[in-house]
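Hey, I was hoping to borrow your eyes for a little while. No rush at all, and the record is pasted right below:
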Amino acid sequence: MKNEKITSGKWKEFREQKWISAFEPQLLFVAFVFACLSAAIGMQITATVGTAPNTSILGVIFAILLGKIPLKFFTRFCNLERQNLVQTMCSAAAFSAGNTCFVAVATFFLMGEHSYMLYAALSCAIGMIISIVIMGKFYDSEIFPAVGAWPPGVATADAIVAGDEGGKKARQLIQGVVVGMIGSYFKIPMAGVGIVFISSIPAMAALGFGLITRGYSTTLFNGFSIGASNIPQGFMIGAGVMALIQCLIMIFKTRKANVGYVAAPEWKPTVTNRKARKSMLEGLCMYVIGAIVIGLVSGIFSGMSAGKIAVWVIWSGAASIISALIVGMAAMNSGWFPGYAITTVIMTITLFMGFEPIPIAVMVGYVGAVGPCFSDMGYDLKTGWLIRGKSEDLERELKGRKEQVKIEIVGALVGVIAVILFATMLIGQNAIPPISSVFAKTVKSTADSKILYEMLMWAIPGFLTQAILGKWMCGVLFGTGLLLNSPKLGVVVLFAICLRLIFGTKWIDGRKAGLVAGDGLFGFFLNVYNAFF
């Protein structure tokens, strides 16, 4: 994949500056204020709409506006890397509060197990921190290359650069934002159009066909509803197993290290296969240790035999690393992360292992925290990689990457603390995430052998699809489309693919990020309005 051409008008000046610390007092203070706001809004929107928005673009806008204030304290935020760190912390807080921790806490509330709500927050915090660290180690490997699509990360980087350069690039971005907002007003998912021009065509085609197959299944199959069956879960299980095998094959290949290069037309990873193997093993060990800590602290082990404890711990660790890899790869290729879908699949499998509802719910909260924050860290690192010059200065890139990981962890913890402080108040107002109701009902249900048989049968085509078209993650993305109920998005994605094939990408190069940003901003403010008014 060709490297994106994204530079800054002040790049020479920026390059000569020393690297920026995530714990710079002024930076941390401003980022903390915006992160608190992002976390609070993320919780409210999750309860009202179902999922928290990516607040990266909003964080960028705040940082850019601050940099325009003619006071020394604020002009520091003209720096691109500071803006990147602010948006990193904002998005981490929103994702951790809305998409993970609040969902887990509300699940226990709906189960009537109020005493476990704090343990749910703890399990999410542990899962998120491990995921952020592991993505920091995996990023720019052959599995998660920096030259991968990571569409939201590209959109955020374009916004930062356009705000810095002004001129033609800024005008094109604004044009894209306006069109994106207008389209969103008419309920057209314009982000899908922008992402099609950023991601690979096969990946987006697989997602589009999956969305249409699920959305129009009753018309296509004489009244049969795929969404009411277990076909999507089964297909995703098969595709996920094959994707995991492909990941293992990729990172265990014998290869010479490719470290210490200067960016060239041909991309070379900064994380070798040897380091990726080590990171995967470290991740598995960390997830297992995290599961042990959660099990001991929550007290769920007290009612289990030694054998069940071992199975629960090993499965929790394995499910976490599987979730991270599958959700992360889907997010990288398409811009959508099927976090809830993968968690539902893992939860369904766990039902057949004979555990009680509480241990299952604890594991669901732990595993459910992994995918969203793993993916969000990848998006933010993509933004940082672009504005730091795509590893032109390797030392600066690696230092900047570490600072982003640090501030992402802080943002995630801000989100967890926000949930601990305000979740009970929101739940008391009947503001409960819809997916929490699904989780609560599912963990109380009894496993049915017919369900298992149906999923295993449909796992076969998922396995084969991913095996044949794994280069573009088509199996996983088609499965993602089957799990999501959004036929309109499928139509838009396929229509945008036709536009790209006919007219190319040059005409939209400066505007595609604006489409994503405009759609996101309009949806963000509309959801805020609906949530509070």
Notes: The two ends are 45 Å apart (CA to CA). The chain has one domain: 11-532.
